[in-house]
Each structure stands twice: as C-alpha cells, then as structure tokens.
Design goal:
Length: 459
C-alpha cells in the first residue's frame, strides 16, 4: 500500500513539475538564436499576458493598497522608516483643503489615492510597452527574447512607483497623456470590433452554407437565424440604452444633443451598411451598441449636477463594460490573424506569405492550422517560422515591423484601462465633483472620439 502511495505521489509530482515547466515556457518564452526569424506574432501572447497582469495590479493598487496607506493603518506602522513617506507620497495632490465638509474631503482623498494607484501601474506599463516598441525597431528579436527579466523589470517598476509622489508625474502628466491615448484607442477599438463582427458574421454564414451542402435545403437556416437574433439583441440594447439616456439624462440641452446625434448615427450606419452589396447587419449592431456605451460614458462625466443625476456615485456599470471591451479587444487583437491584417497593412502580406510557405512545404502534415472566421485552430505555432526554426534568409521579403505596432497598441490599451478605472480622472462624491474642469474635458474627449469613430465607419 505504501509503495502505491509513493508511486502515486511521484507521478503527481512529475505532472506538476511538467505543467509548471510548460507554463513557464509559455509565459517567459525561450531564447533562440538571432539567426532564427521571429514570427509576425512573436511574443504577442506574452505581451498580452503582461498587460493582463498590469490590469490585475491596477485593481489591487486601487482597492487594496491605496486604502491601506493611511497614518492609522497596520501597513504604515509595520514600515516605520518609509511609512510616513508613503503617506505623504500617496496624499500628494489629494489634500482638498478648500473643502469645508470633513466627510466629503475624506471621500475625495480616498478616491484620489485610488486613482493614483491605477496611474502608477498604468505609467509603468506604458513605459514598458513604449521601450518595447522602440527596441523592436532596433533589434528584430526584441519582442521574443528575455521575457523572464522583462517581467521582473516590470514588477520592480511597479514596486518602486509606490514611493513616488502623485504630483506631478501621475495625477497631472500621465493622466493627460492617458486621456489622449485612450481617445486614440477608442478609434482603434472600433477597427477591432468591426474586424471581429465581420469575421463572426462570415464564420456563421460559412457554417450555414456548409450545412446546406451537407444536409440539404434549410439546414443552414439556424445559423442565419442566430446572426439575425444576435443582431436584434444588440439593436434592442442600443435602442433601450438611448431610451434610458433620454429618461435619466434628458432635460439638459447638451445631453439631448449627444443622445440625438448618437441615435441619428445609429440609424445612418445601419442604413448605409444594408444598402451595400456586402452589408453586415451584425457589424452595424455591434458598432451601434459601442456608440451607445460611449454616449453614456461621456454624459456620466458631466460635472454639472443638473445634467448628471448620478454625479458622485460609483459608476460600476461603466467600469465593467469598459473592462469588458478591453478584454474583448485584447483577445481578438492578440490571437486573431485578421486583426493583425486590419491593424497593419504589412501584417496581411506577412501572414499570407507565411501561411502559403507552410502550405507548400507541409501539405502532408495533419497538424496544419486552419483559419476559421479569422481565428487560428489547430496548432497555432505552425504558421510561425520561429516555431519551425526557419532562418531569416529562408523567408522571402519578410518584414517584421508589426512588432513595434503591437506594442504601441498595447500601450494605448494601458491608457484606456487607466482612465476607464478612474472615471477619466474625475473625483466625485456625494453629488459633487472635486475637479469639474477635468470632467468637462473628459466628457468632450469621449464624445468627440465617438463621432470620429462613427464617421470613420460611415466613410
């Protein structure tokens, strides 16, 4: 009996070590010779994983670490030397001495400190991806190698950022840069959502046609009905959202103008989409839902209490939807071939040439990847020359400039979640805003980004 238990424990230990080794290899990568060509998607999964790690740390800093940095907290008493410096650093720019009500002033300080926690992670992550983009232009394999030290460097940066004052680096400099980056990402996210919607629609149409061929007339109707049903649900969400915005945010001229323009644009993009030969109702439905979300986000930043009935309340719904859009965009941009093509003109030719290269040389392989609706199925590494040890000179006309573009996109994603988690920098409590000018700037930046996004889609 003891021998059986020992062998069982040994097997479990082996499997655990093997799984841990595979996980480390997937996350940290392996160093290959510089002679081996990096694939167009080289390092993409590890970059996305680091960004997800940054998002997790942002939540920890905002809701766990920031409240703990207080004169009376156990954490500060446990750090006798640096404790007082931490309190001063995290309260920098968050004093609000002009507020007479002590309770409101305390609320403002806690919210401001939480925001500063997010900005710390956002600043370090943005700096990381900026240097990664720069390194990718200098060294072609920079996005593939040394991911262990990269993760350590990122975590060390997050740790040392704890000791830096909020002002001016985080609350002023990074916040304003993050707003600009987030506005650019709103437009970029529109491209990603369009790509996702078109491929979703095409994949289900292909399934419908396949079912028709294999099972006879009418067999594919369920797929077409699914497309129509999903589009109808999206439109119901959009129209319901518009109705709710009229109900809760109506009575204010600027809000009614924003809502009316959104409704007109939704009708316009749907009409234009359906009037074309390659119209996609699902695409219009998804973009309409995204436009409704942006309109709601914009009006929720209005610092005027007469125009914003929810001023000072925790906008949990906006945060959840914002993070949801971020994760969807990350998943699609990080693991979809067609997103690479849409985001980079050179990416299309790279991917196509690599896929053709594999098809010509590995036609007998049962593990060849297939592309369905823009997603790679099967062995996703087969289209990557570095996974097969293909040398640079064996891949004709290879251009790996997409690496720096990927890092720039991820830097914009960092800007997006930095402002999404912090209400675009607004500090609100009890129906009041501590920085009304910030709310106005954020409101206009979001709504203008929405107009630009819808205008590009119409064009």
């Amino acid at each position: 009996m003891g021998s059986i238990i020992s062998n069982l424990a040994l097997c479990i230990s082996y499997l655990t070590c093997s799984a841990a080794g595979s996980l480390c290899g997937a996350c940290l990568g392996t160093n290959k010779s510089d002679d081996i060509a990096p694939g167009p998607t080289s390092g993409r999964k590890r970059s996305v994983f680091l960004l997800l790690l940054a998002l997790t740390l942002a939540f920890v800093f905002q809701y766990a670490l920031a409240p703990a940095i207080d004169d009376n907290s156990d954490l500060i008493n446990w750090v006798p030397v640096a404790g007082s410096h931490l309190v001063d650093a995290w309260n920098s720019g968050c004093t609000y001495d002009d507020i007479e009500d002590a309770n409101i002033r305390s609320d403002y300080q806690e919210i401001c400190k939480g925001h500063a926690g997010v900005y710390r992670i956002g600043f370090v992550a943005s700096l990381f991806f900026a240097f990664a983009a720069l390194a990718s232009t200098v060294k072609r394999t920079a996005n593939r190698i040394s991911w262990g030290p990269k993760y350590m460097l990122f975590l060390l940066g997050c740790f040392f950022s704890i000791f830096i004052d909020n002002d001016p680096l985080f609350n002023d400099v990074f916040l304003n840069l993050a707003r600009i980056g987030a506005s650019l990402f709103i437009v970029l996210q529109n491209v990603i959502l369009i790509d996702m919607a078109y491929n979703w629609n095409d994949a289900w149409v292909i399934n419908a046609n396949t079912a028709e061929r294999e099972n006879g007339d009418g067999a594919g109707n369920k797929w077409l009905a699914a497309i129509l049903g999903l589009a109808v649900l999206m439109f119901i969400f959009s129209i319901t959202s518009v109705g709710l915005m009229y109900h809760y945010y109506g009575g204010c001229d600027i809000n009614e103008a924003f809502i009316s323009i959104t409704l007109i644009m939704i009708v316009a993009i749907t009409g234009v989409q359906l009037s074309g030969e390659d119209g996609s109702l699902l695409t219009s439905a998804i973009i309409s839902a995204y436009a409704a979300y942006l309109a709601f986000t914009s009006m929720s930043k209005n610092p005027d209490g007469d125009c914003n009935p929810f001023l000072g309340e925790n906008n949990a719904l906006g945060i959840v939807i914002g993070v949801g859009f971020t994760l969807i965009s990350l998943t699609w941009a990080g693991f979809s071939l067609t997103a690479e093509k849409r985001l980079s003109s050179s990416g299309a030719s790279i991917t196509d040439s690599l896929l053709e290269h594999d098809n010509e040389n590995d036609t007998t392989s049962a593990a060849q990847p297939t592309v369905v609706g823009g997603l790679v199925t099967g062995d996703a590494n087969n289209d990557d020359p570095e996974s097969q040890g293909v040398r640079v000179d064996s891949v004709p006309d290879a251009d790996y400039s997409t690496h720096w573009k990927l890092n720039v996109v991820l830097m914009l994603v960092v800007c997006w979640f930095s402002v999404s988690l912090t209400g675009w920098g607004t500090v609100e409590s009890s129906g009041n805003a501590a920085n009304p000018d910030t709310g106005k700037v954020s409101m206009w930046m979001i709504i203008v980004s929405q107009w630009l996004t819808l205008g590009i889609y119409l064009w």
